[in-house]
Write a structure and sequence with these properties.
Bound molecules: 6-O-phosphono-beta-D-fructofuranose
Structural class: alpha/beta
Length: 343
C-alpha cells in the first residue's frame, strides 16, 4: 500500500519555509510516499483543503519567501466543532503522518494532537528564535540579516543629520532579533524584553556618546521591550486565536522620550514585516533543508511526537512537548556582550 505524508505551515510566514516543504517532499517522494500539502495551516485541516505535492510543485521554490501552502493563525483547539472537523479530516485523509512546520502555537497544536493519538512530527519555524529545545529556528538568520542591513542604512542618515535613530524590530516576547541585529549593526543601545528599559540610563548613554564628539546614535528596540514599571506597548488589545496581543509602538514612545530628555533630534523606523519577507539566506535554506529531511526521517522511523532540532551543528530530534513548554529568551551573558558597546 502506498504511504502518504501531509505537510502544513502555520503562524507567521517566515523565510525558509519553502526549503523545508521542498526537502520533505523530495525525501518523501524518493521513499515512494505520496505527499499532500494542507493549505493555510490548521484552517486547512478543519476545512479539508489540500493539494498534492509532486516534483513539479516543489521545483523552483527554494529561494522564494513566504509559504507555497499559505498559512493562518487558526487554533483548532479553540472550539469543539473545529477540533472535531480537524480530527475527522486527519483520519479521512488516510495519511501515515502529518508534518507541522511552525512556531510555538502551531507546534503546540501538533503536540496536543499527538497526545490525542495522531501521528505528528514538527519543524521549528519562526523569525523570533524563541522556541526552546533547538539552538536555532529557521527564518531567524534571514530576519537578523534584513534588520542588520536596515540598521546599516539608517546609520548613514543618523550620521549625516546628527540624529538619534530608533529602530524597532520584531521578536514578540524575546529579544533575539534585536540583540543579534543590534550587535551586528553596531547599535549604541539595544533594548529587549528581557531587560526593562531605564530611560534615564539610555539617555545618559546617548549624552555621554555625544559628549565625546559622536553626534549621532542608533538605538535598537524590540517590539516587546517595556519601560521599568511599565508594560508592553500594544498595537491592539484584541487577542488572536492563541491568546496573543499585537505588539508594536514602543519605538515611537521611546523616540519621543529620548528627544524630550536629551534635546537631540530623534527619528523612528519600524521595520515590521519587512523582516519576514523575501528570499531566505543561504544559512536558512540549508537549515530548512536539513530540518525537512530530518522530519521525513522521523516519519520513516515512526518517531512521532518529535521535532527536528539543531543542537550545536547536529540535527537531532526532541519531544514536541519540550519545544513548546517555555519560551527561549536571551540570557544575561549574551546581553552583557552587547552592553560593552553601549554609549
Ligand atoms: O512570530 C513572528 C512575528 O513576526 C512576531 O515577531 C510578531 O510579533 C508577529 O509575528 C506579528 O504577527 P502578524 O504578522 O500576525 O502581525
Amino acid at each position: 500500500m502506498i504511504k502518504r505524508v501531509a505537510v502544513l505551515t502555520g503562524g507567521g510566514d517566515c523565510p525558509g519555509i519553502n526549503s523545508v516543504i521542498r526537502a520533505i517532499a523530495r525525501k518523501a517522494l524518493k521513499e515512494n510516499y505520496k505527499v499532500i500539502g494542507i493549505k493555510n495551516g490548521w484552517k486547512g485541516l478543519i476545512e479539508n483543503t489540500t493539494i498534492p505535492l509532486d516534483l513539479d510543485s516543489v521545483s523552483g521554490i527554494l529561494p522564494k519567501g513566504g509559504t507555497i501552502l499559505g498559512t493562518s493563525r487558526t487554533n483548532p483547539y479553540k472550539n469543539e466543532a473545529d477540533l472535531k472537523k480537524a480530527k475527522g479530516n486527519f483520519k479521512a485523509l488516510k495519511i501515515d503522518a502529518l508534518i507541522a512546520i511552525g512556531g510555538e502555537d502551531t507546534l503546540g497544536v501538533a503536540s496536543k494532537l499527538y497526545k490525542d493519538g495522531f501521528k505528528v512530527v514538527g519543524v521549528p519555524k519562526t523569525i523570533d528564535n524563541d522556541l526552546s529545545a533547538t539552538d536555532r529556528t529557521f527564518g531567524f538568520d534571514t530576519a537578523v540579516n534584513i534588520a542588520t542591513e536596515a540598521i546599516d542604512r539608517i546609520h548613514t542618515t543618523a550620521e549625516s543629520h546628527h540624529r538619534v535613530m530608533v529602530v524597532e524590530v520584531m521578536g514578540r516576547h524575546s529579544g533575539w532579533i534585536g540583540l543579534e541585529a543590534g550587535i551586528a549593526g553596531g547599535a549604541d543601545a539595544i533594548l529587549i524584553p528581557e531587560f526593562p528599559i531605564d530611560i534615564k540610563e539610555v539617555c545618559g548613554l546617548i549624552k555621554k556618546r555625544h559628549g565625546r564628539g559622536k553626534n549621532f546614535s542608533i538605538v535598537v528596540v524590540a517590539e516587546g521591550a517595556k519601560f521599568k514599571e511599565g508594560s508592553e506597548i500594544l498595537q491592539e488589545e484584541r487577542l488572536d486565536a492563541f491568546g496573543h496581543v499585537r505588539l508594536g509602538g514602543i519605538g515611537q514612545i521611546l523616540g519621543d522620550e529620548i528627544e524630550k530628555i536629551t534635546g537631540f533630534e530623534t527619528r523612528v523606523t519600524v521595520l515590521g514585516h519587512i523582516q519576514r519577507g523575501g528570499s531566505p539566506t543561504a544559512f536558512d535554506r540549508v537549515l530548512g533543508t536539513r530540518y525537512g529531511v530530518k522530519a521525513m526521517e522521523l516519519v520513516l522511523e515512526e518517531k512521532f511526537g518529535q521535532m527536528a532540532s539543531l543542537q550545536g551543528d547536529k540535527i537531532v530530534s526532541v519531544p514536541l512537548e519540550r519545544a513548546v513548554g517555555t519560551l527561549k529568551t536571551v540570557p544575561k551573558e549574551f546581553y552583557d556582550i552587547a552592553t560593552t558597546f553601549f554609549g
